[in-house]
Design goal:
The protein is of the alpha/beta class. It is 58% helix and 8% strand. It has 2 domains: 333 residues, no CATH class; 133 residues, no CATH class.
Amino acid sequence: MGESSSHATAGVAGLGVTWTPRYYLVLLLAFLALHGVLAAVLPLSGDEAYFWDCARHPSWSTFDQPPLVIWGVIPFRLVLGDTALAARAPAIVANALLGLFLLPLMRRLGGGAREAAWAYLVLHGAPLFFLGSFYNATDAAMIAAYVAATWAAVALAQGQRRAWWGFGAAVGIGFLGKFPVVLVLMALLPALARREVRAQLRTATPYFAALLSALLTLPVWIWAAQHAWVNFTFQLKERHDVGAFTLVHLGAFLGASALFASPPLFMALGLAWWRGWRRREPGWAALLVAAMSPFALFGLISLWESVGGHWGAPGIVLGVVALALTRPRPRALVASGVAFGVAVALAVVMLALAVDRVPWSRLPLSDASRARVLDALAPAIGNNEIVAEIERRLAPGELVASESYTDVHMLTFLSHSRLRVRLANINQGLHGLESLYWYRPEELANRDFLFVTERGGLTDRLEAIFAHVREEAPIVVMRAGRVVRRVRVLRCARLLQPAPAFTRLGAALKAS
């Protein structure tokens, strides 16, 4: 279904713009520039530093994440160096691709450039999308692929056999971004409900498209075969903490989803989904099933365990697509939702820019209020001071270690790789363990380490694997006359047992 000339010349209310595909591309380029600026100036998070560091040790996949966003960092490092912009470039590219996919998806559902522009602008009123447009996470690539696969599913529901190829490619590439992309398979159900689409199953096209999809996922399976399938046991078993039946986690999941979308906008999305379902059109059914699938599965899981509030993000994006095509739109809900979301997103951006520059002692806050704010922001304060002090204390030939995977990679990034930092998984953490597959036991045995941590109670565990452990004066970060952060420093001599705390290779891998 193409875009009519009337759609091509219609303007967006309140913007005074005549939306054509060309102007829509200009909009995408403008936001691409904005995302690039924000990515360059905002401080990197620990998880983003983890992906950046993984890109310095490229592999088929990783222990806890598929490889796409990590691979994406590699070419940008070559061009931009080890910068925040290079580390975040995959998210910016994924967001731009998502914007491109919105236009043909809208066209399939009876809209055009006007609706695509409206949806893209409204999405930036959702804090999760606005911040995620330049924050590098596996969700960025997965959501773009999810939208592309939905576009293909809508085309299939409308009888386009060649859309099998697009669906297969999108699911395969999305699998390399984040595994939950497979939930978009549910969008095939409305298509397969049609007899003419089921008839396509008697041709070779769907099966060759499925083969293409499977081949695209091979890197994950290759890494799994090389490492005793630990990436799948982690995803399917280790990361889950199943408890008794409860509605608490479901409420938290839906509440967080509403907050990430902005509560009024989340209500508008629900209304658009209901109105869209009443259309009884196969393409619309494919869109709405794809939108609901993440909420249905993770809502069900949340009855027994906690789930991430952002896991419904693909559904939020597709909900905005439905909202863009809804007539009449709930203008008050959308306007208040966008205003709320933009305010939240801008507050986060401003806080991230200023957190280490704020003259805390001069702020008009009570001592108790200032203390609460500083405690909440403590993990983001004084990182460069901590790096400088570690470098000052480091002895020749000594390595740095921490039990926190985010600290390990953040210290590496902030020191421009001058600090050689290793993860010591002595606290039996589950996430961020990819670096345990980078170094063999013989590379670490008998090495001396400067161990830094903001935790207590780790000395006994260090003494069990080192010949000698001696605690030194802590690194203290002060703000407004009070201690904000206290980093313990333990000088650890001769690592006697590298595995499994420092490495899972060699004997450690066989033992697993």
